[in-house]
Amino acid sequence: MTFARSEQARSELARAELGGRMPTILTVPGLGGSGPAHWQTLWEQSRNDTIRAELGSWDAPSRNAWVTRLDQAIRNAAAPVILVAHSLGCHAVAWWATLTGQPWGWPVAGALLVAPPDVDQADACVSLRRFAPAPRESLPFPSILVASDDDPYCSLQRSFDLARHWGSTFEDAGPLGHINAASGLGFWQDGQALLDRLIGASEQSAAGSTPAEVTRALEARA
């Protein structure tokens, strides 16, 4: 936990307030939820600004139910909100954005989307197929999509295509599998750096920068 505390302090120093308010970091796990060794759980335990969106039915998700529960979690959180989604949780975020049509950057000010699976592939499991087709609309907030080049649930090219559809800055994390507990990432310091980068872009958005300017800023920080 020593590292986690120092990382928390670094993160607090690295970011300023969004429109005078510190963001709430809302994690959105995927199929099966995130267990005790998952980096999302470790972030929740070590950061006082981070809470989990309890979507329920982790092992048998329904798209509409998850989107509804996510909407409730966002409304109950202190805005602005930064979403940190993993796996199928990324598609819940994309569907939420598509169905709610929020204004640019509020109440969700940004999203870190990690290892979204390919819900459209023919051999995807039933739980993934319930979220098909993947939305193709640009997200109404700055976002970074992180993919692994050996993810068993999505090819790197398909991950890149999802980033393009969603207007997300694309990050190739290398060979990290599904970027989960099995990847042995622990607290995932690189992910924390990406989160700080995203918060910085969200601050720029809150200051009045256009989506194109925010995207260029995200890419410049890579």
Automatic annotation (TrEMBL):
One of the record's GO molecular function terms: hydrolase activity
Pfam families assigned: Ser_hydrolase (PF06821)
Protein's name according to its UniProt entry: Esterase
Protein species of origin: Sphingomonas jatrophae
